[in-house]
Design a protein that fits this description.
Layout lengths: L1 E6 L5 H5 L3 H7 L3 E6 L3 H10 L6 E4 L7 H22 L14 H14 L5 H15 L3 H13 L3 E4 L5 H12 L3 E5 L17 E4 L2 H10 L8 E3 L17 H8 L6 E6 L9 H12 L5 E6 L10 H6 L3 E3 L4 E2 L8 E2 L1 H13 L2 E4 L4 H6 L5 E4 L11 H4 L15 E3 L5 H10 L8 H8 L8 H11 L3
Parallel strand pairs: 1-2, 1-4, 2-3, 4-5, 5-6, 6-7, 8-9, 8-13, 9-10, 13-14, 14-15
Antiparallel strand pairs: 11-12
Helix pairs in contact: 4-5, 4-6, 7-8
Organism: Algoriphagus aquimarinus
Protein name: Diacylglycerol glucosyltransferase N-terminal domain-containing protein
C-alpha cells in the first residue's frame, strides 16, 4: 500500500510532517510519498526529526485558475456564505467574504455577488459545483496533476488542507484515476465559511460536532464518508518527552521560575488590530504584582514590532519568539520542530492563557488550564469590533458553557487573572466539556494513530 500526503501549503507541516503519522505508516509497511509546495528546508527538518523515516518527495506546482471556474467558485463561495448566514441566523458569517484589492478583482467580486445571490439553496450550489468540476477537467492543471499522480501512483491521497483550490483540482484528478481521496478539515472555524473547493472519498473531522457541521453545510456529503479522528495538533501535548522542567524552561527563555506565569498569545493585525492596546492594559493592571510574569507569544506569521513600545514599557512582559522560519508570504512561513516543545511547555507551565478569541484556549485545556478572552472595545469608531468577533459562528460551540473566562473591561484584568491563578477551578468551569465537544479525546490512542488506522483500513 502507498499513501501520498498532499501538503499544498504550510498549514499541514506541524500536524502531518512533524507528527507520528509518517513513522506509524512506515511501521505498518506502508510506503509514503509527500507531494508538497514547501521550502526544501522544511523537508530537511522533517528528516532531521525522524532520521529513520524515508519517504518519496514530489513538488506540487501551482497553476493560475482558468477564469470561468474561478468566477463560478467565487459565486458559490458568496452563495454559501449567504445561505449559511440565513440558516444560522448569523450575519457575521458574511464577514468571510473578503474584498479584493485591485480593480479587476473588485469588478469580479461585484458580479460574483450578483450571480451568487441567485443560488438561494444548497442544491443549486451543488449543481454549480458540478459545473466547476466539469470545467476543471479541461484545465492544464488537471492534466498536469493526472500525470503527477500516475508517476506517484498512490493508493490513497490525503490532502492536509481542504481550502486550497489547486489541491481541489488535484483531488479531482485522483478520483478520476480511481485513487481513494481523503480530505482533512483543518480547523474548528472552517466549515461555516463554506470553503471546501474539493470533494473526497472520505473526510477526517475533529469531533461529532464538526461532523454535524459538515453534514449541515454540505448535504451532498454522506455521513458514512466522514471519520471522526480528532486532530494531530493536540497529540503533542500528551508526549511526556517534550515536557521540560520548570527551571530548564525558565533558563532557556530568560524567565523567573519562582513567579506565576500567564501567557498572552498575540493575533495577527487583521484578526486583532488593537492587540498592542490589550497587552498594554494587561501590563498596566499587573505591573505591581510581584509574583507574576507575562509570557508574550507573538503570532508566528507576523513580526511583533507593533508591540515594541509596550514591551519596552513593561520589562516583566517576556517575549517568547516563535521558532519559525519567515517567508516572503504568510503561507511560506513554517515552524521548526522545536517550536512544538515551546508550545507544549508554555501550556504546561503557565497558569492561564489570555487572547482575543484564539484557539490557544484549546491548547491550554489539554492540561486543564483556563483560557481567558479579552472582550472590550478600545476604539469604538474603528470598523473592527471585538463584540462582533465573538458573534462568529465557531464561538457558538460554547454558547451553553462556561468554557472561557472573560475580561469585559480593563478594571477586570487583575481580579480575573488572580482568580485564574489562585482558584482555577472557579473560572472556565466547563473548559474540558468544551474541549471534548470540539476535539475527540481518547486516552487509549492518539489522533495520529487513528488517522493511520483509518488510512490502512481503506485498502482492505
Amino acid at each position: 500500500m502507498k499513501v501520498c500526503l498532499l501538503i499544498p501549503d504550510g498549514i499541514g507541516i506541524r500536524n502531518y510532517l512533524y507528527s507520528d503519522i509518517i513513522p506509524l505508516l512506515q511501521e505498518s509497511n506502508v510506503d509514503v510519498a509527500v507531494w508538497h509546495s514547501l521550502d526544501p528546508a522544511v523537508m530537511k527538518e522533517a528528516e532531521r526529526l525522524n532520521p529513520q523515516v524515508n519517504f518519496e518527495n514530489y513538488v506540487f506546482q501551482f497553476y493560475k485558475e482558468d477564469p470561468l471556474p474561478r468566477f463560478l467558485r467565487d459565486c458559490i463561495g458568496y452563495a454559501r456564505l449567504k445561505v449559511n448566514a440565513k440558516m444560522e441566523g448569523n450575519p457575521t458569517i458574511l464577514d468571510n467574504w473578503l474584498p479584493k484589492k485591485n480593480f479587476k478583482g473588485k469588478v469580479s467580486n461585484y458580479f460574483a455577488e450578483i450571480f451568487g445571490s441567485t443560488f438561494t439553496d444548497l442544491d443549486k450550489i451543488t449543481k454549480v459545483d458540478t459545473i466547476i468540476q466539469h470545467q476543471q477537467r479541461k484545465s492544464a492543471a488537471y492534466r498536469k496533476y493526472r500525470d503527477d499522480l500516475k508517476r506517484i501512483n498512490p493508493d490513497v491521497l490525503l490532502c492536509t488542507h481542504q481550502r486550497e483550490p489547486n489541491a481541489g483540482v488535484a483531488m479531482l484528478a485522483a478520483q478520476d484515476l480511481g485513487i481513494r481521496t481523503v480530505a482533512v478539515i483543518f480547523s474548528w472555524d472552517n466549515l461555516p465559511k463554506g470553503r471546501l473547493p474539493m470533494r473526497a472519498t472520505n473526510y477526517l473531522v475533529w469531533s461529532e460536532y464538526m461532523e454535524k457541521e459538515l453534514l449541515k453545510y454540505f448535504p451532498d456529503i454522506k455521513k458514512e464518508d466522514i471519520q471522526i479522528v480528532g486532530t494531530p495538533q493536540f497529540d503533542f501535548y500528551s508526549n511526556q518527552e517534550l515536557i521540560k522542567s520548570r527551571i530548564e524552561f525558565a533558563e532557556e527563555n530568560g524567565l523567573d521560575p519562582l513567579k506565576r506565569w500567564i501567557c498572552y498569545s498575540g493575533d495577527d493585525s487583521l484578526t486583532s488590530p488593537h492587540d498592542p492596546i490589550y497587552l498594554n492594559d494587561i501590563g498596566e493592571a499587573l505591573q505591581n504584582q510581584q509574583d507574576i510574569e507575562v509570557l508574550f507569544r507573538p503570532v508566528p506569521v507576523e513580526g511583533f514590532e507593533r508591540y515594541q513600545s509596550v514591551l519596552d514599557k513593561f520589562p516583566f512582559i517576556k517575549t517568547l519568539v516563535p521558532k519559525w522560519k519567515k517567508g516572503e508570504f504568510w503561507n511560506k512561513f513554517f515552524p521548526y520542530p522545536e517550536d512544538i516543545a515551546v508550545l507544549v511547555n508554555l501550556a504546561y507551565h503557565a497558569d492561564v492563557v489570555l487572547n482575543v478569541g484564539s484557539t490557544m484556549a484549546l491548547d491550554f485545556s489539554q492540561f486543564d488550564k483556563p483560557g481567558v478572552y479579552v472582550n472590550y472595545e478600545v476604539a469604538p469608531d474603528h470598523p473592527w469590533s471585538i463584540k462582533r468577533v465573538y458573534q462568529f459562528q465557531h464561538f457558538r460551540t460554547f454558547a451553553d458553557l462556561d468554557a472561557v473566562g472573560w475580561i469585559n473591561s480593563p478594571a477586570e484584568i487583575l481580579s480575573t487573572i488572580r482568580k485564574a491563578i489562585d482558584t482555577p477551578s472557579e473560572i472556565a468551569k466547563d473548559r474540558l466539556v468544551w474541549r471534548d465537544r470540539i476535539v475527540y479525546q481518547d486516552q487509549q490512542s492518539s489522533s495520529s494513530s487513528r488517522i493511520v488506522d483509518f488510512l490502512i483500513s481503506t485498502s482492505k
